[in-house]
Design brief:
The chain contains 5 helices and 6 strands, in the order βααββαββααβ. It is α+β, with helices and mostly antiparallel strands. Helix 1 packs antiparallel against helix 2 and helix 4 packs across helix 5. The chain starts with a strand and ends with a strand.
């Protein structure tokens, strides 16, 4: 459990991140404005629901999934019980690789404990072979990383700067 950092302006565009930021700024400048607070609450609920829906489309094994979002901080909090460590890590990545999310607060638990993977943030010029060479010493191990990030990755060549990938232990 804990917080995981992500690149706020990279990832899936699931909700109006800029709109949530503007609503947060409106509440900060006028804390007594009930209409602004209500609008921010509504946008936060919509963002949490959008992220949760996205996770559900990935077919990952999780019970009681709930995602909340705080537009003022860019923090998505994830609750639920994953079937295994790999599913938990993929769920955290689904939540974090969304435009507008700067951090993911991991409040999940796991049915079957296993070693944790490490995470890697893609930079310009990266490809899975280069990442595999750096982490495993063998560029041909790129499919291990690709498989560890399915279904979020649809093709080994479709990664982007700012994306966070799961690097499973060898």
């Amino acid at each position: 459990m804990g917080f995981f950092d992500f690149v706020k302006h990279a990832g899936e565009k699931l909700f109006g991140a800029k709109e949530a930021e503007e609503a947060s700024a409106a509440v900060a400048s006028a804390p007594d404005d009930e209409a602004a607070k209500a609008r921010l609450d509504e946008l936060n609920r919509e963002a949490g629901a959008a992220i949760e829906s996205y996770v559900n489309t990935q077919g990952l094994s999780v019970t009681g999934l709930t995602v909340t979002f705080d537009g003022s901080t860019g923090v998505a909090s994830v609750f639920g019980v994953a079937a295994d460590q790999a599913s938990k890590e993929k769920i955290l990545l689904c939540c974090g690789n969304v435009t507008g999310v700067a951090q993911v607060n991991d409040m999940m638990s796991v049915d079957q404990s296993e070693p944790e993977a490490s995470f890697y943030t893609v930079v310009s010029g990266d490809n899975l072979s280069k990442i595999a060479k750096a982490h495993y010493g063998d560029a041909n191990q790129y499919m291990v990383i690709f498989e560890a990030n399915k279904p979020m990755l649809s093709h080994p060549d479709k990664i982007y700067p700012g994306q966070v990938l799961r690097i499973p232990p060898q």
